[in-house]
Specification:
- By secondary structure, this protein is α+β, with helices and mostly antiparallel strands.
- The chain contains 3 helices and 11 strands, in the order E-H-E-E-E-E-H-E-H-E-E-E-E-E.
- Strand 8 and strand 9 form a beta hairpin.
């Protein structure tokens, strides 16, 4: 199995988040989670000053582009290329060119490795992010994405949530 690399996809300007959502939904529907690992719209913090008040907002680093961490094959190429709003991969002709580690470094995207000893059925507590202080049970482990799927109670129902290894600790 070949290794996942980061690729750049050109989109219609203003459609970056919609393209990300569409690709994420297609990956889920076609069960390509092991091949298309992550879709990102890189953002940067910008300080704006209006009427003497400074506030920090997030702006797209590359309007019209989306980054995708995936294993390139005919299926994944087809899924991404035929997503509504995508005009094509960045690269000569129809051959996508992966980003190098040197090109990824300034974007702040690092692949940190976490040694984990989680197993399905273990209890975990979320220590960061939107689900902080939530307790759940591990349902599945995705080593490639370095994430866990846990069940949490939401509105009285068990709901699966994907959490990064960095955001949880074992109970």
């Amino acid at each position: 199995m070949s290794e996942a690399k980061w690729y750049v996809v050109h989109t219609y300007s203003g459609y970056e988040n919609k393209v990300k959502a569409n690709i994420d939904k297609t990956v889920e529907n076609r069960h390509l989670e092991e091949q298309i690992l992550e879709v990102r719209v890189p953002l940067e913090d910008v300080v704006e000053s209006k009427n003497g008040v400074q506030k920090v907002t997030q702006k797209k680093m590359f309007p019209g582009y989306v980054l995708i961490h995936m294993i390139m094959n005919d299926d994944t190429w087809y899924v991404v290329r035929n997503t509504r709003g995508v005009t094509g991969f960045v690269g000569p002709g129809s051959k996508p060119v992966p980003l190098t580690d040197e090109e990824m470094a300034p974007l702040g995207i690092r692949r940190e490795s976490y040694a984990v000893d989680y197993e399905v059925g273990d209890g975990v507590k979320v220590i960061a992010g939107a689900w902080a202080d939530t307790v759940g049970v591990v349902q599945s482990i995705n080593a490639a994405k370095q994430s866990l799927t846990i069940n949490v109670e939401l509105f009285g129902r068990e709901t699966p949530v994907e959490i990064s290894f960095a955001e949880v600790k074992k109970l």
